[in-house]
Specification:
The protein is 42% helix and 14% strand. By secondary structure, the protein is of the alpha+beta class.
């Protein structure tokens, strides 16, 4: 299958992978022939990429980081808890979080088990789900990225559990920020931005006194916007003053934020998101965590059309474990001519070759 940007689709293309909504219901099923109306609807729903049936890439299979069922179960659990937390009743809020801790622990353990059993590099670019609420989907994605990163960093089971729960709850304080500010399409005023920044402290204050939640988790909410050079917030702490789990979540948080659609900007590709992380490595983020992210995440997902620095074009056909930015490319075009016989080129064997463009993006 080929992974194409929705905006580049033409009517008549055959969908290669089912698209779901946030309830887990099928929006468009695998094998359906897309019409112009369907394609326009997908763009409205912010489905950026879809898998299309393609003869030259029929054997290229998209990787699934976790099962669709576990993904939907986790999203629904996050959605249910966070919606209940929008209440002003502090006693109710405390009870909700206390009850949620056991459910989230179970889900984190299941996600960790599935990620460990999955031998493919992690990617979310080809996950075809629509979500109404950015905070809920972002919390889920950051949890998945954080756990994939934690596994690469060889954290033990208890650390992974705390990391996963910390990632789920990292933005819980945003439930106390006015929705019109969170969803504002334009630039925030200084006052509005200060309210958004306060979500770190809101989250910490909510979580720190709940007996079923570890204080480590509360510090993940408190510190995920701190930076190792001391230029983060809310306290401007730096280096080893920042909890290690919060440092991991901060990398996952930034990567998902820049590679996800927002009302005020277009999403970046995973390769561009990695560039953002590298630009901050050593100042904002620990170099070792960014390097681990590169090893754990497929920066160029299977099926993505790419162009190399020597002009050749092709499709990502496979991954090299622990080399997320050096995939295997099926070359389909040379010197502006389509090849009669495609061939595989493993970039790990050709250090002089670089991917310079992701086509149809």
């Amino acid at each position: 299958m080929r992974l194409l940007a929705t905006e580049s689709l033409n009517p008549g293309a055959i969908l290669g992978k089912t698209i779901f909504n946030e309830q887990g219901n099928i929006l468009l099923g695998e094998g359906i022939t897309l019409t112009e109306k369907m394609i326009n609807r997908l763009m409205v729903l912010n489905i950026r990429f879809v898998y299309i049936v393609d003869e030259q890439t029929a054997d290229i299979i998209p990787s699934e980081p976790i099962s669709d069922q576990l993904r939907m179960d986790t999203f629904k659990a996050i959605e249910s808890v966070f919606i209940q937390l929008q209440s002003d009743n502090k006693l109710k809020t405390k009870i909700v979080v206390e009850k949620a801790a056991a459910r989230f622990t179970e889900l984190v353990r299941n996600i960790t088990a599935e990620l460990k059993n999955n031998k493919e590099l992690f990617t979310l670019l080809g996950d075809l789900f629509t979500y109404d609420n950015e905070i809920f989907s972002h919390s889920l994605n950051v949890t998945l990225y954080s756990l994939a990163l934690g596994i690469e960093l060889k954290l033990n089971e208890k650390q992974l559990e705390l990391l996963g729960i910390g990632a789920i709850f990292h933005d819980i304080g945003k439930m106390a920020v006015p929705e019109d500010i969170l969803k504002k399409p334009g630039k925030l005023t200084e006052s509005e931005f200060e309210q958004v920044k306060n979500h770190s402290e809101y989250g910490f204050m909510l979580l720190k006194d709940i007996h079923t939640i570890s204080l480590h988790v509360a510090h993940c909410a408190y510190q995920h916007h701190e930076r190792i050079d001391g230029l983060g917030y809310p306290r401007g702490i730096k280096g080893d003053e920042i909890h290690q789990l919060a440092k991991i979540i901060s990398v996952a948080d930034v990567f998902d934020a820049v590679t996800s659609h927002r009302v005020y900007r277009k999403a970046m590709l995973p390769s561009e998101g990695l560039e953002v992380l590298y630009a901050g490595a050593g100042s904002q983020f620990e170099v070792g965590i960014v390097e681990a992210f590169r090893r754990a995440v497929a920066i160029y997902p299977n099926g993505l059309t790419v162009q190399l620095n020597d002009g050749r074009k092709g499709v990502i056909s496979g991954q090299n474990i622990r080399l997320g930015d050096r995939p295997i490319v099926r070359i389909l075009e040379e010197f502006d001519h389509t090849l009669n016989q495609a061939y595989e080129l493993n970039l790990k064997d050709y250090p002089q070759l670089m991917i310079v463009q992701c086509a149809n993006a």
